[in-house]
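dude i think i finally got it to work??
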Amino acid sequence: MWTSHRITIDAEVPVSGLKDKAALIRKVIKAVLSEEGILVPCEINVLLTKDEGIREINVEQRGIDAPTDVLSFPMLELTPGDKPEEAWKDPGTGLVALGDMVLNLDRMQEQAKEYGHTMKRELCYLVVHSVLHLLGYDHLDEGEEKAKMRAREEAILETLGIGREEE
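look at this
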Protein backbone atom coordinates (compact mmCIF):
# COMPACT_ATOMS: atom_id res chain seq x y z
CA MET A 1 0.00 0.00 0.00
CA TRP A 2 1.32 3.41 -0.96
CA THR A 3 1.05 6.07 1.74
CA SER A 4 1.33 9.75 0.92
CA HIS A 5 3.16 11.64 3.64
CA ARG A 6 3.62 15.40 3.79
CA ILE A 7 7.20 16.35 4.53
CA THR A 8 7.82 20.10 4.69
CA ILE A 9 11.43 21.26 4.62
CA ASP A 10 12.44 24.83 5.43
CA ALA A 11 15.90 26.36 5.70
CA GLU A 12 16.54 29.41 7.85
CA VAL A 13 20.08 29.66 6.50
CA PRO A 14 21.54 29.35 2.99
CA VAL A 15 22.02 25.64 2.20
CA SER A 16 24.33 24.43 -0.51
CA GLY A 17 22.56 21.79 -2.61
CA LEU A 18 19.23 22.35 -0.85
CA LYS A 19 17.19 20.60 -3.53
CA ASP A 20 19.31 17.42 -3.31
CA LYS A 21 19.40 17.49 0.50
CA ALA A 22 15.62 17.96 0.65
CA ALA A 23 15.07 15.01 -1.71
CA LEU A 24 17.37 12.83 0.41
CA ILE A 25 15.64 13.89 3.64
CA ARG A 26 12.24 13.01 2.17
CA LYS A 27 13.52 9.64 0.94
CA VAL A 28 14.95 8.78 4.36
CA ILE A 29 11.84 9.87 6.27
CA LYS A 30 9.62 7.78 3.99
CA ALA A 31 11.97 4.79 4.40
CA VAL A 32 11.84 5.01 8.21
CA LEU A 33 8.06 5.25 8.20
CA SER A 34 7.85 2.28 5.84
CA GLU A 35 10.32 0.18 7.84
CA GLU A 36 8.35 0.95 11.01
CA GLY A 37 5.12 -0.16 9.33
CA ILE A 38 3.42 3.24 9.41
CA LEU A 39 0.45 2.92 7.05
CA VAL A 40 -1.47 6.13 7.75
CA PRO A 41 -0.39 9.32 5.97
CA CYS A 42 1.71 11.46 8.30
CA GLU A 43 3.09 14.98 8.41
CA ILE A 44 6.62 15.88 9.49
CA ASN A 45 8.17 19.34 9.40
CA VAL A 46 11.94 19.73 9.01
CA LEU A 47 14.00 22.86 9.67
CA LEU A 48 17.59 23.17 8.50
CA THR A 49 19.68 25.57 10.55
CA LYS A 50 23.16 26.09 11.98
CA ASP A 51 24.67 26.27 15.49
CA GLU A 52 23.11 29.60 16.50
CA GLY A 53 19.61 28.73 15.27
CA ILE A 54 19.47 25.35 16.99
CA ARG A 55 21.00 26.81 20.15
CA GLU A 56 18.16 29.36 20.33
CA ILE A 57 15.55 26.63 19.87
CA ASN A 58 17.31 24.45 22.45
CA VAL A 59 17.23 27.30 25.00
CA GLU A 60 13.59 28.13 24.26
CA GLN A 61 12.25 24.58 24.23
CA ARG A 62 14.52 22.66 26.58
CA GLY A 63 16.31 25.29 28.70
CA ILE A 64 19.71 24.11 27.42
CA ASP A 65 21.99 26.93 26.25
CA ALA A 66 24.06 24.96 23.75
CA PRO A 67 23.88 23.85 20.15
CA THR A 68 23.19 20.20 19.36
CA ASP A 69 23.07 18.11 16.19
CA VAL A 70 19.33 17.43 15.98
CA LEU A 71 16.18 18.21 17.93
CA SER A 72 12.99 16.20 17.67
CA PHE A 73 9.60 17.42 18.83
CA PRO A 74 7.02 14.60 18.73
CA MET A 75 3.36 15.51 18.57
CA LEU A 76 2.27 12.10 19.89
CA GLU A 77 3.19 10.08 22.96
CA LEU A 78 4.19 6.82 21.31
CA THR A 79 6.38 3.99 22.51
CA PRO A 80 8.57 2.01 20.10
CA GLY A 81 6.38 -0.18 17.96
CA ASP A 82 3.26 1.96 18.42
CA LYS A 83 1.70 3.13 15.19
CA PRO A 84 -0.35 6.24 14.52
CA GLU A 85 -4.00 5.41 13.98
CA GLU A 86 -6.47 6.53 11.32
CA ALA A 87 -8.59 8.11 14.05
CA TRP A 88 -5.74 10.52 14.83
CA LYS A 89 -5.82 12.14 11.39
CA ASP A 90 -6.45 15.86 11.27
CA PRO A 91 -9.85 16.23 9.61
CA GLY A 92 -8.63 19.19 7.56
CA THR A 93 -5.50 17.58 6.13
CA GLY A 94 -6.18 13.85 6.42
CA LEU A 95 -2.71 13.51 7.98
CA VAL A 96 -1.42 12.46 11.39
CA ALA A 97 0.99 15.13 12.66
CA LEU A 98 4.05 13.21 13.89
CA GLY A 99 6.11 16.26 14.80
CA ASP A 100 9.04 18.46 13.90
CA MET A 101 12.77 17.98 13.51
CA VAL A 102 15.55 20.56 13.48
CA LEU A 103 18.84 19.63 11.82
CA ASN A 104 22.09 21.52 12.50
CA LEU A 105 24.21 21.70 9.35
CA ASP A 106 27.29 22.95 11.27
CA ARG A 107 27.26 20.02 13.70
CA MET A 108 26.47 17.60 10.88
CA GLN A 109 29.62 18.62 9.04
CA GLU A 110 31.75 18.44 12.21
CA GLN A 111 30.44 14.98 13.12
CA ALA A 112 30.95 13.61 9.62
CA LYS A 113 34.63 14.55 9.91
CA GLU A 114 34.87 13.33 13.50
CA TYR A 115 33.37 9.92 12.71
CA GLY A 116 35.20 9.56 9.40
CA HIS A 117 32.22 9.33 7.10
CA THR A 118 30.47 11.51 4.57
CA MET A 119 28.07 14.38 5.08
CA LYS A 120 25.45 12.27 3.27
CA ARG A 121 25.77 9.47 5.83
CA GLU A 122 25.60 11.91 8.74
CA LEU A 123 22.51 13.60 7.30
CA CYS A 124 20.80 10.24 6.78
CA TYR A 125 21.74 9.07 10.28
CA LEU A 126 20.37 12.21 11.96
CA VAL A 127 17.12 12.04 9.98
CA VAL A 128 16.61 8.36 10.89
CA HIS A 129 17.47 9.17 14.52
CA SER A 130 14.97 12.03 14.63
CA VAL A 131 12.10 10.13 12.98
CA LEU A 132 12.60 7.28 15.46
CA HIS A 133 12.29 9.84 18.27
CA LEU A 134 9.03 11.05 16.70
CA LEU A 135 7.87 7.42 16.78
CA GLY A 136 8.61 7.01 20.49
CA TYR A 137 12.15 5.63 20.53
CA ASP A 138 14.54 7.09 23.07
CA HIS A 139 18.08 6.68 24.34
CA LEU A 140 17.99 8.33 27.74
CA ASP A 141 19.34 5.23 29.41
CA GLU A 142 22.62 3.60 28.44
CA GLY A 143 21.03 0.18 28.35
CA GLU A 144 18.21 -1.56 26.56
CA GLU A 145 16.39 1.50 25.16
CA LYS A 146 19.54 2.96 23.65
CA ALA A 147 20.60 -0.41 22.21
CA LYS A 148 17.16 -0.91 20.67
CA MET A 149 17.23 2.53 19.07
CA ARG A 150 20.78 2.11 17.74
CA ALA A 151 19.90 -1.28 16.24
CA ARG A 152 16.87 0.22 14.44
CA GLU A 153 18.96 3.14 13.16
CA GLU A 154 21.60 0.87 11.66
CA ALA A 155 19.04 -1.57 10.21
CA ILE A 156 17.16 1.25 8.48
CA LEU A 157 20.35 2.84 7.16
CA GLU A 158 21.36 -0.56 5.81
CA THR A 159 18.07 -0.89 3.90
CA LEU A 160 18.86 2.49 2.34
CA GLY A 161 22.33 1.31 1.37
CA ILE A 162 23.86 3.85 3.76
CA GLY A 163 26.40 1.89 5.77
CA ARG A 164 29.27 3.35 7.67
CA GLU A 165 31.35 3.29 4.51
CA GLU A 166 28.68 4.14 1.94
CA GLU A 167 30.88 6.32 -0.28
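The chain has one domain: 6-159.
im so relieved honestly
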